[in-house]
Specification:
The structure holds 2 protein chains of 2 kinds. By secondary structure, chain A is an alpha+beta fold. Chain A is about 45% helix and about 20% strand. In chain A, the strands form 8 sheets. A 5-stranded mixed beta sheet of chain A has the order 9-17-12-13-14. A 4-stranded antiparallel beta sheet of chain A has the order 10-11-16-15. In chain A, strands 3-4-5 form a 3-stranded antiparallel beta sheet. In chain A, a hairpin with a 4-residue loop joins β4 (about 225-230) and β5 (about 235). The chains are: A alpha+beta, B alpha+beta.
Chain lengths: ~625, ~550
């Protein structure tokens, strides 16, 4: 019965048209739905007898380019990482202030040097003295508030990680749930029914969202289920979602740092735990995405910014308070020659400085002996180059005499130490070493009677001497604790009077000139840990030049981060555009499709009506 | 930035527009602030240089403040110095030209001028610029010089001023016998009876011990009498303490006529050293004309007695005795006249020393043989500024105020009222103003009109001499020259800084500033681009098949 065939074929055509229409309407409706992938009908011909061929819709196709999707995810991670980092560094720039404005490190420093200059011009003027006290106070406050700002940002990073971990857990659960739904789908995970397609759309959207948070790798199995790994290969989602945990710490200060050993860590760690009880620390393995940016900011970028401020504060404090005294050379006729040093007033962290020549190689070397009062912190972290050695020596008496420790520690250097009371003597070894110079550097704590050096700044009331104790290095967080010596703010005349017997005259500019000299012209060496200079050739320069270095470094970092973020966004936009071109809904195309469907429907209906006419003709013939 | 939420197409079109929009915002901000950015990040590669330039500009303005301050101080100090120079020259003029007419207070018109000049000088040395005293070295917070009235008259009864120190010194210089502690005699036999010996009253110990400082000292003797023998004062040989090889002896000089009878007009010259170190000569002239009394500084040659039988030949011994008598009168007159002036000059020197030296062992100072250091409890300390020695080192006065006017340039502009030139001025004017001379032939010491005249003219002469510029010693003009040098240095530094400042500022502007024209042009271009984007985006969304079905 070929007429019946034709009718049923036309019916099939109408059904197919209707299905296509519903897909068009669904495409148009979801044109702006995030994560929606354009669907097309999977239309096949069906054999309906000897001559005609029917049509059947067997499913829907997701117009998805897997390759672009994978790329899009990688770049999404990168772009989130770069944007977040840039936005934090812009906030750091906010802390560094408007270069032309007043709330900057340089403006405080300039105000201080100007006040000191005024004081050296008019040492007798009470207002000039108070001017210096106020400028110093402002300088300390500026460092305090910048440091506070940096720590607040670190705290925000800590909170940011916590939030992101929460979001990631939720996404991972959703992905696992969809994986399970696909498994239990009676039609199988690869089914092309529209419900499955919707699930897949949903899941891909979750995976993309997860890629914003961290760098992930995704594999899809034959049942269309995905397994999500971190960039370093730790599985996050399969049929089950792993749980990320993060023990956020409420207090973030310069002294709280993250350590891979959780016993030593005072900040939160991101761990992935599995239902079987195992857990892996992911904190420093994430390379991209928001979480990686947060971790990097919290543990590296902002820590370095803090270290730079600390170094600046420490150098400025020490420059004014440290007095270097040359040792007493032995009498001309004494054999062996050497120096006697008074170690009575050394504070923890103060140094004994030796310069000696190794006779055999005719090489000059320096040796810096650091006073330490707690043997448990020894040996000090290595910051030693071949010709410039730094060693810590326990002065508390629990490790034997200073001379004995020095002789033991410097066995190869052929230096000969003896001590008697608070006098440390060092002697040449004939034919091996010649001592060229010996001195002690001592942090002054009093305001008069010790020369022109003046402890203008203190570590929250205590002398800053660069001590290293069990609690850590004194320099850590100094910028946050730096304060003006309260004895000076109580009696600003001590900015001029450095001796009370005989009394320094009111117009004596010696101390003011010293302060000015130290702040403006004296050159210091800065720790390479601050990211300026290297261990081999540490940065040496004035306070101003160091400030130039750190300020411009931060500025350059922020500018670079912002450029990287812009670049990443361009890449991301391009990919999104590409993705939309292949997988997005094009309304024009859908409309054109609509027209042809309309025509096809009319044609099918026409066939039906013609078949109907033919049936009528047939019926009327009898 | 990327836009999440709606689909991709909307997102990237939107991103483009937002990007334009944010550029426009940035440019508008630049136009408003005139700065390229309000963060270090936005300043670009010049940010480090800009920071250095701002520090440099800051230091220029701090140096400019210093320069203004220091210039003012130097100008004030200079005015003081000018006035001191004027005082010096008017007092010197008065000393040279004014007569020796004493008024009822015992002073000449010249001394009155000096008195006014002294008060003025003290004021000048206590000059202030702002709150800062300029002539006290580093002690800038208190007047460096005591008040003029205190310096002259002392403070209360216990603390002596210059006038009292002068009076005490005069007593000590005159000695118990009111003769300047020096006497003449014809020695007793067996020494030659035809000799006259001038002897100091006190013993002079062997060096290094010093003789007592008061009174006149024998210095030399010479004569035109042919055949007479003069013996100069001998300096005792140096001995090693404690045992002097030669016992202390009173220093003396003598002339022995022997048997020679001087001729009319022959002279004997005795040179005596005054307390202030100057020398005065007493020239005794032999005469055959007997007078009663003899003219000053003449002695009668013994005529003998040719009429007597046998005729008595002229005696050298009698002549020597005549010489001795006349010399005694002359020496006493010298002591009460010229030496009194020299004593006042020396008292001034003692008073202006640090510490002031006073006659020891009084009151009744006429037998004193020591000078003792006065303390602020008994003597007005005229200079209370910073000492000119620190830890045994002589400390340059100019170096007591050092101003940094550039990174490597300092100027020195300190001054101390006890600098040589200033002290000399003040000391001599003060002494001139302090000395009073009253004729009182019956007083103690008796002062005759002759004595008074001698004293005034000796004083006038010494003051005029001391106030004259002596080559090789510091003068007030030297200090002014130092100040002028400092001001010139400040001026050239300031000029240079002003030029550098312009250069630094324009360099800084090129880093952190924006070119308004450029920004405005960019804004126009962006505005056009943005409008076009809005228009085309809107058109794009309108241009859908949906509209045409």
């Amino acid at each position: 019965m070929s007429l019946g065939d034709a009718l049923s074929i036309a019916m099939a055509g109408l059904r197919a048209n209707q299905a296509s229409m519903s897909l068009v309407s669904s495409n148009v409706a979801n044109a702006e739905t995030p994560g929606y992938v354009r669907k097309t009908t999977d239309q096949v011909q069906t054999n309906t007898g000897s001559i005609g061929t029917g049509v059947n819709i067997v499913g829907v196709n997701r117009e998805l380019d897997q390759y672009i999707l994978a790329q899009l995810r990688t770049e999404t991670s990168g772009a989130s990482y770069a944007s977040l980092k840039s936005s934090f560094l812009q906030q750091v720039q906010g802390i560094y202030g408007n270069p032309d404005g007043t709330g900057t490190l340089e403006s405080s420093f300039n105000a201080l040097t100007a006040a000191v200059q005024a004081l050296s011009t008019s040492p007798d003027s009470a207002s000039a003295r108070i001017g210096v006290v106020n400028a110093a106070q402002a300088m300390a406050s500026q460092l305090n508030s910048m440091s506070q700002g940096l720590q607040t940002l670190r705290g925000a990073a800590e909170t940011g990680i916590k939030d992101s971990v929460g979001v990631a857990n939720n996404l991972m659960k959703q992905i696992a749930t969809i994986n399970n739904q696909l498994q239990t789908n009676p039609l199988g995970g690869t089914s092309t029914d529209s419900a499955t397609a919707a699930l897949l759309d949903q899941r891909d959207q979750y995976v993309t969202q997860l890629s914003q948070l961290m760098d992930i790798r995704v594999t899809t199995n034959s049942a269309n289920q995905v397994t999500v790994f971190t960039g370093s290969g730790v599985q996050l989602v399969g049929n089950e979602a792993a749980t990320l945990t993060f023990d956020a710490q409420g207090t973030v200060t310069p002294n709280t740092t993250w350590n891979s050993n959780s016993a030593l860590s005072s900040l939160g760690s991101i761990k992935v735990s599995y239902s079987n009880g195992g857990s892996i620390d992911l904190t420093d393995t994430l390379k991209s995405g928001k979480i990686a940016a947060y971790v990097e900011l919290r543990d590296k970028t902002l820590v370095q910014a803090q270290t730079q401020l600390d170094q600046f504060a420490a150098t400025m404090a020490s420059a004014l308070s440290d007095k270097t005294t040359t040792g007493t050379p032995t009498a001309a006729a004494a054999v062996p020659q050497g120096y006697d040093l008074n170690t009575a007033n050394l504070l923890t962290g103060n140094t004994i400085n030796l310069t000696y020549t190794d006779v055999a190689s005719n090489t000059q070397r320096t040796l810096t002996i650091v006073r330490v009062d707690d043997p448990s912190v020894l040996p000090l972290p290595a910051s030693t180059t071949a010709n410039n050695k730094v060693i810590g020596i326990d002065f508390s008496g629990t490790s034997g005499t200073v001379a004995a420790q020095l002789n033991a520690a410097l066995n190869g250097a052929n230096l000969n130490f003896t001590s008697s009371g608070s006098t440390l003597s060092v002697r040449n070894t004939a034919g091996f070493t010649t001592i060229d110079a010996a001195s002690t550097t001592v942090t002054q704590t009093g305001l008069t009677g010790n020369g022109v050096e003046v402890p203008l700044f203190t570590d929250n009331g205590k002398a800053y001497s660069g001590a290293t104790t069990v609690a850590g290095a004194q320099i850590t967080g100094l910028a946050q604790r730096l304060s003006i010596n309260t004895a000076l703010s109580a009696d600003p005349s001590r900015l001029v009077v450095y001796n009370t017997a005989p009394q320094t005259p009111a117009g004596d500019s010696t101390r003011a000139s010293f302060i000015s000299q130290q702040l403006n012209n004296a050159r210091f060496t800065y720790s390479p840990q601050t990211g300026v200079g290297s261990t081999g050739t540490p940065f040496t320069g004035t306070l101003l030049s160091y400030m130039q270095q750190i300020t411009s470094q931060q500025g350059a970092n922020a500018a670079a981060a912002s450029q990287v973020a812009d670049g990443q966004n361009v890449v991301l936009s391009t990919l999104q555009q590409k993705f939309t071109a292949t997988s997005g809904v094009n309304i024009d195309e859908e409309m054109a499709h609509l027209l042809s469907l309309q025509n096809a429907y009319a044609a099918n209906a026409r066939v039906m009506s013609t078949v109907n006419d033919m049936y009528k003709t047939l019926m009327q013939a009898f | 930035m990327s836009i999440d939420g709606v689909s991709g197409r909307t997102s990237y079109i939107g991103s483009g527009i937002l990007n334009l929009r944010s550029q426009l915002d940035t440019l508008t901000e630049q136009l408003a602030s005139g700065k390229v950015s309000n963060t270090y990040a936005g300043q670009g590669a010049g940010r480090s240089l800009a920071l250095g330039l701002r520090a440099q500009l800051n230091s220029y303005s701090a140096y400019a403040d210093t320069a203004t301050n220091v210039n003012t101080r130097i100008s004030v100090a200079n005015l003081s110095l000018q006035r001191l120079v004027a005082v010096t020259s008017s007092v010197k003029g008065a000393a040279v030209s004014a007569g020796s007419t004493l008024d009822n207070t015992g002073q000449t018109a010249g001394q009155k001028t000096a008195s006014l000049g002294f008060f003025d000088s003290v004021d000048m040395l206590n000059a202030k610029a702002g709150d800062r005293y300029l002539f006290g070295g580093r002690a800038t917070d208190a007047p460096p010089v005591a008040s003029a009235d205190q310096i002259l008259n002392g403070s209360g009864t216990a603390i002596a001023g210059l006038k009292q120190v002068i009076a005490e010194r005069l007593q000590a210089d005159l000695g118990v016998n009111l003769n300047g502690r020096i006497g003449s005699a014809v020695p007793a036999a067996p020494a030659s009876q035809s000799s006259v010996v001038v002897t100091e009253e006190e013993l002079t110990p062997a060096p290094p011990a010093a003789a007592q400082p008061f009174g006149m000292k024998v210095s030399g003797v010479s004569t035109t009498i042919v055949g007479a023998t003069v013996t100069q004062p001998a300096t005792l040989p140096t001995t090693v303490p404690p045992t002097p090889a030669v016992p202390p002896a009173a220093k003396s000089m003598s002339i022995d006529l022997g048997t020679v009878i001087p001729q009319e007009g022959d002279t004997v010259k005795f040179t005596l050293q005054m307390p202030d170190g100057t020398s005065e000569d007493i020239v005794m002239t032999a005469t055959t004309t007997a007078k009663t009394p003899m003219d000053a500084n003449t002695f009668l040659i013994d005529p003998g007695n040719p009429q007597a039988v046998p005729p008595v030949a002229p005696s050298s011994a009698v002549t020597a005795a005549n010489l001795n008598t006349a010399l005694a009168t002359s020496m006493k007159s010298l002591a009460n006249g010229t030496m009194a002036a020299a004593s006042a000059i020396q008292a001034g020197q003692n008073f202006f020393d640090q510490p002031p030296m006073r006659v020891g062992g009084g009151p009744a100072f006429n037998a004193s043989t020591t000078l003792v250091a006065g303390t602020k409890a008994d003597t007005v300390i005229w200079y209370t500024g910073e000492s000119d020695t620190t830890a045994g080192q002589t400390d340059s006065a100019r170096g007591t105020a050092v101003a940094q006017v550039d990174t490597g340039t300092t100027v020195q502009y300190g001054a101390r009222a006890n600098e040589q030139a200033l002290r000399t001025e003040l000391q001599n004017v003060a002494v001139f103003a302090a000395v009073t001379t009253k004729v009182s032939p019956t007083g103690t010491p008796p002062v005759t009109a002759l004595n008074a005249g001698d004293k005034i003219s000796a004083l006038n002469q010494r003051i005029a001499q001391n106030l004259a510029v002596i080559p090789g010693t510091q003068s007030i003009q030297n200090i002014q020259a130092d100040f002028a040098g400092a001001q010139a240095s400040i001026k050239s530094t300031t000029d240079r800084q002003n030029q550098s400042k312009v250069i630094s500022q324009s360099l800084l502007d090129s880093i952190e500033g924006v070119d308004n024209n450029e920004v405005a042009t960019k804004i126009l271009a962006l505005q056009t681009a943005l409008q076009a984007s809005y228009q085309t985006t809107s058109d794009l969304y309108k241009m859908s098949l949906v509209k045409f079905l």
